[in-house]
Specification:
InterPro entries: 6-blade_b-propeller_TolB-like, Serum_paraoxonase/arylesterase. Keywords: Plasmid. The chain has 2 domains: 203 residues, 6 Propeller (Neuraminidase); 100 residues, no CATH class. 7% of the residues lie in helices and 50% in strands. The protein has 3 helices and 23 strands. The strands form 6 sheets. It has a 4-stranded antiparallel sheet with strand order 1-2-3-4, with no helix packed on it. Strands 5-6-7-8 form a 4-stranded antiparallel sheet, with no helix packed on it.
């Protein structure tokens, strides 16, 4: 989910992973989330998209990056221009390094970062990390349409958040239950490692400057749920905010109502949350959770 707060909208990336059917990119008018029903407008269909990022351009248009996964196991990064509700394809970035691409983030109008959950393309790479505990995920850089590894040795590199104003890059290491903080100008080794209560997924920034992170408290229950295996009817949902006062849990549920949260964005006093498998979004009242102010223990948020 990529938030465009200035326009009161968000771009969504979605497809049915269990069924293997395609989905696409959608535009959500955030003004409509308090209505009885809220519709997302299709921008591009027939895709299996993963991570996305949105950038405001000087001419007022928006540039969009989207990881696109293909049936043969490869992946590409697609470049788009968004004018109103019209999405125009601008090009495709291809590289063997993108086969396990997960998230993307603009550095400027041309360069972008991406995460790779594993160090290789085949099932052997998945087994090496997921079963044997290897840490071969990485952060890559695409410059002049060429991809290279920037940071290696990460246990399932997932969401990423570059913050040029503070010369930092935050990377979610899902299998390490940690956020890794690097100097963006010299990302040779993490400057800080922040332990979080679960495997971190996507990262977004709240208006109050805190980092919002969706967490997976149980990798086993997540895997059972993700693949629809016995015992996987639900997987826990947890959302936290990280700031100077530490980590605050904003939402913590068993997942029977809304399973396996993957992303949360803050807009106009609401948390809007996406999931691995849920057919919609969860909307929570931030005021009830303390997300916009106090770091006191969270009360159960009003949700629907």
């Amino acid at each position: 989910m990529a938030l465009d707060a200035a326009r009161g909208q968000a771009v969504l990336s979605a497809y049915d992973r269990r069924a293997g059917t395609t989905g696409g990119l959608y535009l959500l008018n955030l003004q409509s989330i308090d209505a009885p029903t809220a519709a997302a407008i299709p921008l591009a269909t027939g895709l299996r998209p993963a991570g996305i990022d949105l950038r405001a351009e000087p001419d007022g248009a928006r540039s969009l990056l989207a990881v696109r996964r293909h049936e043969d196991g490869s992946a590409t990064v697609e470049r788009y221009r968004l004018d109103g509700a019209t999405l125009t394809h601008q090009g495709t970035v291809t590289s063997p390094l993108l086969c396990r691409a997960n998230d993307v983030a603009f550095l400027d109008g041309e360069r972008f970062l991406f995460t790779s959950s594993h160090g290789g393309c085949g099932w052997s790479a998945v087994i090496e990390d997921n079963v044997l505990g290897g840490r071969h995920g990485f952060v890559g850089l695409v410059e002049n349409n060429e991809a290279r590894v920037l940071i290696g040795g990460i246990g399932f590199a997932n969401g990423l958040f570059p913050d040029p104003s503070h010369d930092r890059l935050i990377v979610a290491a899902t299998r390490e239950d940690a956020l890794l903080v690097y100097r963006l100008s010299d990302p040779q080794a993490p400057q800080q490692r922040i332990a979080v209560p679960g495997g971190p997924d996507n990262l977004t920034m709240a208006p109050d400057g805190r980092l919002l992170v969706a967490l997976h408290p149980s990798p086993v229950r997540l895997a059972l749920h993700r693949y629809g295996w016995p015992g996987g009817a639900a997987a826990p949902t947890r959302v936290a905010a990280l700031g100077p006062s530490g980590v605050e849990i904003l939402l913590d549920e068993d997942g029977r109502r809304f399973p396996a949260a993957t992303v949360a964005v803050s807009w106009n006093g609401r948390l809007v949350i996406g999931s691995v498998t849920a057919p919609g979004l969860l909307v929570c009242d931030e005021a009830a959770s303390g997300a916009t102010g106090s770091s006191a223990p969270a009360e159960p948020p009003a949700t629907r």
